[in-house]
Design a protein that fits this description.
Elements (H helix, E strand, L loop, with lengths): L1 E11 L4 E11 L5 E10 L3 H8 L4 H21 L3 E6 L1 H5 L3 H12 L3 E3 L2 H9 L3 H4 L5 E7 L4 E7 L2 E8 L3 H5 L5 H15 L6 E5 L1 H10 L7 E2 H11 L4 H6 L5 H4 L2 H15 L3 E3 L5 H10 L7 E2 L2
């Protein structure tokens, strides 16, 4: 007996807003499959407002409303039966974040959960991460966002430490990360990883996904520290416009890809990792998985 249901996840990040629609395929005698049906990404850069002016601008409130209305229609036409919307550091830190969430609820019916960094890390960990992990190895998991980066240490398949740092791509672009934050991150990584002989990094986020795609590596194969360093140095030889025209990067990717690469390289350097694995997972995948597993009790049915 085959049962297919559509779930949706809305990820309201500091750099972009995403809608992921997934088919949940249940078949007797087989493992449940989560198959991506549609992914829509809208570059509403909330972080640029919030990290500088501490609130979401009128223009971006309007863009958010339009985006959510479009997402609502897309979910209805796709026949989505369950969804969850999560907002991360930009809306969390905006003075008007809760107010904007209320307005969106009133105008579109979409309920937005503004989540803490630790909950974000836990949701991401609920993804298919386990299928990428070798139980005999040790990993530092790094999820780079626009406003913050989530780090988790995974030893023999078990998460033993996790922390969210306010070091994100949009913050770095706007020169809003103090030296102290980098020092704190370096100390935390070294403290958590020095007792292990060998550690590997797992990276997630749109920027590392893009770098992995460009590398032409087969899925499951890692990128080396040397490759990532070369790519980072190469990116800096191009202007923003050239990164769009010559390297074929999206406008809202062409600037943040440099600070993102810096975060991954720092994590690799401080943990002593020679390789980074890129499983192509993120918050949206975690939301769908956690909804299915019902670990997140406050899910919302589409009206």
């Amino acid at each position: 007996m085959l049962k297919i249901q559509k779930y949706a996840a809305i990820d309201i990040g500091s750099n972009a807003v995403r809608l992921l629609i997934s088919n949940i395929v249940e078949e007797k005698g087989s493992d449940t499959r989560f198959k991506k049906s549609s992914l829509v990404r809208v570059p509403v850069r909330l972080g640029a407002d919030v990290f500088i002016n501490e609130e979401i601008s009128e223009n971006n409130v309007h863009r958010m409303l339009q985006t959510m209305q479009a997402f609502k229609l897309l979910m209805e036409t796709h026949g989505v039966v369950k969804y969850k919307a999560c907002a991360t550091s930009a809306m969390r830190e905006a003075n008007n974040g809760k107010e904007v969430a209320k307005l969106i609820k009133k105008k579109t019916g979409i309920q937005i959960d503004i989540i803490e960094g630790e909950e974000e890390a836990a949701i991401i960990a609920a993804t298919d991460l386990q299928s990428y992990i070798d139980a005999n190895k040790n990993y530092l998991y790094v999820d780079v966002g626009g406003g913050s980066t989530e780090f988790s240490v995974i030893v023999k398949g078990e998460k033993i430490a996790s922390k969210s740092f306010k070091i994100g791509t949009v913050r770095l672009l706007n020169d809003m990360v103090k030296k102290d934050a980098w020092i704190e991150l370096e100390q935390w990584i070294k403290q958590q990883t020095t007792s292990y002989d060998k550690i590997e990094v797992i990276g997630s986020g749109g920027n590392i996904n893009k770098i992995f795609k460009v590398s032409g590596k087969a899925m499951g194969k890692p990128l080396s520290y040397f490759y990532l360093t070369s790519y980072y140095n190469m990116l800096q030889t191009y202007s923003y416009e050239e990164r769009i025209s010559i390297l074929d990067l999206n406008q809202d990717r062409a600037d943040v890809i440099i600070p993102a690469t810096r975060i991954y390289l720092s994590a690799m350097k401080w943990s002593g990792a020679k390789d980074i694995y890129v499983p192509k997972i993120g918050l949206a995948d975690g939301i769908i998985k956690s909804m299915y597993n019902d670990t997140v009790s406050s899910h919302t049915k589409l009206k």
